[in-house]
């Protein structure tokens, strides 16, 4: 049972999980994925021996009893996710879905956690819900056991529900992403260091330790106790460990991406620009670049040539390939706008823009264009290539 928040980079709305929508909570759809049916079938079969041992004599009805328990278990998972969703919305997040899946469930939300306390509260409420349920089922089990010393089916189900909720609550508090305990650790490291990305990366690495520990628990603990490891337990631990390892790896990647986003700077990524007036010829534009080099600007040859209109408003940027295709004899008669790529109106960025502010601006204002002008106090200073921004975010 996990919560998930998309990386703080502009992107289309996350794709919704595929499955059956059975309702809405916190304004978001509740989805039962197709994989849940496989989980329900497998768990029903796995819990049959436990119920037979505690409530013998059910015959074929033991399968129905096991399925009822599985429904009870996933009901607890659902309440776990509801708690995540309600607290996330209360902390200003936009909850996009609650999904019941093969691995239990997850709650997805967007909005960007603003403070460590937000992440801590959203994460901790899920396991706490399961621990409260465990206490409630345990109390009911004790009451039912005292009322009737015979272990009937309802009493057995209450006892198993108490044990399973206690396990889910404690397991989810393990301090490694993608578990809720990992988000708690992330929030604590974030509070201490002031950097969420540091917390995410630290909790991701601890999550990998937890993933290995789950497998070692199934393999080593029985040997320490003088028993042979159970093949079933080893297989399940391997599956769970693989899931945790993948989630931890994704968290580490996400944390590094956050660091890369925080380091973004329009001034640092932009290519410097020289300006030419709208209506000038290509020969005049190239002469301006040559004059800049001769005037002591040795890197001017690499500057982009930006066409500006009245008042210095950036209109377009010369396309190097189109410029190279113009014969020298035609450069004196070819106007710059004929070999330039127009800017999207309103796409210009301030050189001081950085981080998520820069990305959000580009997502909202670039209009799908690859190049945008960098303008400082009404003067064009450079050209920003969105491909360079993407490479910086990916760390390549």
From TrEMBL:
Residues 154-205 form the Peptidase M50 domain. Its main location: membrane. Keywords: Hydrolase, Membrane, Metal-binding, Metalloprotease, Protease, Transmembrane, Transmembrane helix, Zinc. It comes from the Bacteria. The chain crosses the membrane at residues 25-48, 60-79, 120-144, 156-174, 205-227, 233-253, 260-283. This is Site-2 protease family protein. Pfam families: Peptidase_M50. Coiled coil: none annotated. It comes from Promicromonospora kroppenstedtii.
